Amino acid sequence: MSTGDSAIIRVQGLVKSYGENRVVNDLSFKVRAGECFALLGPNGAGKSTTLRLLLGLSQAQQGRIELLGLPIPERAREARARIGVVPQADALDPDFSVAENLLVFGRYFGMRSADIARRIPELLDFAGLGGKRDAKISELSGGMKRRLTLARALVNDPEVLFLDEPTTGLDPQARHLIWERLKQLLKRGKTILLTTHFMDEAERLSDRLAIVDHGRLIAEATPAQLIASEIEPQVIEIVADSPLAWAERATHTPGCARVETIGETVLAYCTDPHPLAAALAADPQARGLQRRANLEDVFLKLTGRDLRD
Q1: Which domains does the chain have, with CATH numbers?
Q2: Residue 275: cis peptide before it, omega within 30 degrees of 0
Q3: To the nearest whole percent, how much of the chain has pLDDT over 70?
Q4: SS3 category, 73
Q5: Rounded to two decimals, what is the model's pTM?
């Protein structure tokens, strides 16, 4: 399966079904060494199942996986010794202190206690937890727990990091701190596979990304390439008492290529926003916001706005 390129993860023709439900459907992609690759999709799109397959925790009915040059699941245990995982749930041991959590986790990799102890100050400093070495888990905030989980994933100095929604539930300050730490890891040459529901997170961190829906790959490129190819460059959001009238007006305004109505909000996707912006400015009863198109616009266009359970 190896092609001699710099890919550190290769997925080819992956299929995974649970009964009649095919949750991963002929999925193929690759992640290059030293990049952040984001795997995006609505709930139930197959992202978490794909991660389990990559880690060798579940087995596909069809397809091939190669991680760090090793076939998965055949050599999954060997591959997992060289990776770090930040799961959705922190799963820290409440009976141990911050430092003890790192020590115990390092032992799972067969590391000597003395070697782990030497790494602990560096890991705590990286996570911004230098003053919390002896604190119990119950004493930590949600952001601190998440940063400790990230530090724990680095205890074996992994080549690849799997991050499953790493900033869900965090306040903006904690999210930005984790983003900064992840950027530091990328500068050190680490490879990151990221799943997230935050489109701004994917746009900030990822070099490339794939969008999956119903287990299928529906788009793959850099964030900038996807925005340029899939969506109009400017968006005007209009909030008005008569959204249907504004939607009709926007539809027939030059420069507006596509219009959506969501409740009282009209979204006008424009190649030239000036004619609609001028009309909006002349109506004191309507409020508007003009902005550049972003990855969330692309995501919603490709996967729809219906809620997923």
Answers
A1: 232-292 (3.30.70)
A2: no
A3: 97
A4: coil
A5: 0.92
